[in-house]
Specification:
Blueprint lengths: L1 E3 L2 E3 L3 E3 L8 H10 L5 E6 L1 H5 L3 H7 L8 E5 L4 H13 L4 E6 L4 H4 L11 H15 L5 E6 L9 H10 L5 E4 L13 H14 L6 E4 L5 H11 L3 E4 L1 H5 L3 H11 L8 H18 L2 H16 L6 H8 L7 H14 L8 H9 L5
Helix pairs in contact: 1-12, 4-6, 7-8, 9-11, 12-13, 12-15, 13-14, 14-15
The chain binds flavin mononucleotide.
Length: 354
């Protein structure tokens, strides 16, 4: 269980906002595996929300099975952010998260995202305005990085100040914006932010660690090394949406119980595809599943033919038969033992071939 302001989550495992990936069909597939304590929309543009831009409407789409849901806004215009937050709360947000970590130029050149680390006084005004606007209805939270420039660690100071204006939870990605996704998440840096959040919030405000959790063992290690109150997982969840279930198992029992069988993993992938067909359209569903299959493939064992078949798939009605044929083939080859998390950890520890 994790408390964020007046919201109680069933656990402390969060599915990250991942632009272009964590839409409603994916969130539903991930939630169906169990143990997603909270999921997020992609970062949302307040203009898009208020103009009811069709792409933003899609990114905000949710339904009763998609709960609890954080809606993440980016921007620095006080009025726009406040109006967009109000709209998001009226349309299903369990909490409003402010993106203070996106390093992408399109976002930072508007002084939003990670650039908010460089303008702390204005950042506090944005946070305070959102707290004053929707904070009586839902928690307002923030997600940031250790600092903007290489080697910087300004997040602890910003975190203290954000808590003083009413932010109810802080997620910290253990890299600077300058690093983007290079190097490794710095657990020592995360621990400094956790300490700052705990001290400023009298241990009532949670701090969530994020970065490079590729297996449930990494989540366990991050919690032990940083004392963070929970973890947020992004890229690893795209390839294995069941990572939350298995992390919960590891954290509560000390081992990962009953890893999903190959058939169960394929069922998750099926659900993802069928949600896309039901909620979007066949053309987009096919385009997305072609993107996703190489990630999923990392957890299916040898599956070159499956990946090839999905990448060239034109007819959505052939999706299920392709998965069925793959399962039959694996059963006949007596190769139906899927990749375990221990296997995955070993594979990740191998040096990458030059
Ligand atoms: C393709 C991509 C899109 C992302 N989109 C967002 C976003 O919309 N909002 C956000 O706060 N972080 C975003 N992130 C950052 C992730 O939420 C997360 O902080 C980062 O990937 C580190 O976590 P991981 O190592 O578990 O992937 C994105 C990351 C990637 C790779």
């Amino acid at each position: 269980m994790l408390r964020i302001g007046n919201t109680i989550l069933k656990n402390n495992l969060l599915l990250a906002p991942v632009a272009g990936h964590c839409d409603l069909p994916f969130r539903l597939a991930a939630r169906s595996c169990g143990s997603v304590g909270l999921a997020f929309t992609d970062l949302l543009c307040p203009h898009g929300i208020l103009k009811q831009n069709s792409q933003t409407q899609w990114l905000m789409a949710t339904n009763p099975d998609d709960h609890p849901l954080g809606m993440q806004l980016y921007g620095q215009d006080l009025d726009l952010m406040a109006d967009a937050a109000r709209w998001a709360v009226d349309h299903g947000a369990t909490l409003i998260d402010i993106n203070m970590g996106c390093p992408v130029d399109k976002v930072t050149k508007t002084f939003a995202g990670a650039m908010m680390l460089c303008t702390p006084d204005h950042t506090l005004q944005v946070a305070e305005r959102l707290v004053n606007t929707v904070g009586h209805q839902v928690p307002v939270t923030a997600k940031t990085r250790l600092g903007y420039h290489a080697g910087e660690c300004t997040a602890p100071d910003l975190a203290r100040r954000l808590i003083h204006v009413g932010i109810q939870c802080l997620t910290i990605h253990g890299r600077t914006a300058a690093q983007r996704f290079k190097g490794h998440a710095d657990l020592t840096g995360i621990a400094r932010v956790v300490d700052a959040v705990h001290a400023a919030g009298n241990n009532q405000i949670p701090c969530i660690g994020n970065g490079d959790i590729r297996t449930p063992f990494d989540a366990q290690q991050m919690i032990a090394a940083t004392n963070c109150d929970g973890v947020m997982i992004a890229r690893a969840a795209l390839a294995a949406p069941w990572i939350f279930r298995d992390t919960q198992s590891l954290l509560t029992t000390g081992s990962i119980q009953n890893e999903l069988t190959l058939r169960q993993r394929l069922d998750v992938i099926r659900r993802h595809f069928h949600h896309m067909l039901d909620l979007r359209d066949p053309r987009r569903a096919l385009a997305r599943i072609r993107q996703c299959i190489s990630g999923y493939g990392k957890h299916l064992g040898a599956c070159k033919t499956l990946k090839q078949a999905i990448r060239t798939l034109e007819d959505p009605t052939q999706f299920d038969p392709i998965l069925d044929a793959f399962l039959d083939f694996k059963a006949q080859a007596a190769d139906h033992v899927p990749v375990t998390w221990a296997d995955r950890r070993r594979a990740l520890a191998q040096p990458v071939a030059a």
